[in-house]
Each structure stands twice: as C-alpha cells, then as structure tokens.
C-alpha cells in the first residue's frame, strides 16, 4: 500500500492537507504519484490572493500517462504557490509530502471543510477499497 503519513488530512481525489493553524499546505498523495507515473508538468491555475472553494479545481498535474485535475480540499485564500514546481515538477515524484507541495491556503479561522476530510487511517482504508 502507498505511504500514508499520519497527521495529514486526505481527500477521495488523493490530495493531502497539512493543517498548521489557519494555514493548510496542499499536495497530492503518494498513491496519486504512483498512479500518475513520471510527472512532467504541474500547473497551478490560480494566483496569490485567489479565493478557493473546497472541491473546486485549482490546477492540473500532467504525467507521461495522463492529465489529472487538482482539487482544493478546503476553502480559503491562496497565500503561497510552490513556484519551484514550474522548473522541477519531478519534485512531486521525489517528495510528494515535502518539496512537492502545491499551494498554501489560509482559512478564516476553523473550517468545516476539514471535517469532511479523512485522517490517515480512513484514507488507508479507502485505498484498500480501490
């Protein structure tokens, strides 16, 4: 089974969310990376200051196998974009939970969106059903 770090939240679309106060760092899971293969392009289609809605597309990841949409796991304001991925999309393959992060979203206090996300145990069980 793919690596599922504890302490993160997960979506059924295979995004992860690291919650640190009112900021949430977002990327794609090891399972998604394994399914996609070699990632050749990461395109974040929002700008700093943009407002994202949970479940809405904020970009795409292109691999040698396919193109997949990136879905925001939480609503809020984009406060950081991993610009390094433009020139080095392979960082997602090498470190999906580290240097391969995509955006940081700032929420207005506590977000009910987080309640709809899975913890590591639930995501691992979800992967077992695929």
- Strands of the widest sheet, in order across it, are 1-2-3-9-8-5
- As for the CATH topology, it is OB fold (Dihydrolipoamide Acetyltransferase, E2P)
Fourth-tier CATH superfamily name: RNA polymerase II/Efflux pump adaptor protein, barrel-sandwich hybrid domain
User: Could you estimate the helical fraction of the residues in percent?
Assistant: 10-25%
Percent of residues in beta strands: 25-35%
Contiguous uncertain segments of 5+ residues = none
Radius of gyration: 13 Å
Figure out the total of helices: 4
The largest pleated sheet is described as: 6 strands, antiparallel
Domain count: the total is 1
Could you tell me the number of beta strands?
A: 9
The run of helices and strands is EEEHEEEEEHHEH
Shape: globular
CATH hierarchy, class: Mainly Beta
The residue-averaged pLDDT reads 93
Summing up helix and strand content along with how strands pair, one would put the structural category as: alpha+beta
Q: What is the level-2 CATH architecture name?
A: Beta Barrel
Distance between the termini: 11 Å
């Amino acid at each position: 089974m793919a690596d599922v770090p504890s302490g993160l939240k997960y979506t059924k679309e295979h995004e992860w969310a690291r919650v640190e106060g009112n900021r949430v760092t977002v990327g794609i899971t090891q399972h998604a990376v394994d399914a996609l293969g070699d990632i050749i392009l990461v395109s974040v289609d929002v700008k700093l200051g943009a407002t994202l809605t949970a479940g809405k597309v904020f970009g795409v990841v292109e691999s040698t196998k396919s193109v997949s949409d990136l879905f925001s796991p939480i609503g809020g304001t984009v406060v950081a974009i991993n610009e390094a991925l433009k020139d080095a999309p392979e960082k997602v393959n090498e470190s999906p939970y580290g240097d391969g992060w995509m955006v940081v979203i700032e929420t207005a206090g506590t977000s009910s969106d987080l309640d709809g996300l899975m913890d590591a145990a639930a995501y691992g069980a979800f992967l077992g059903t695929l």
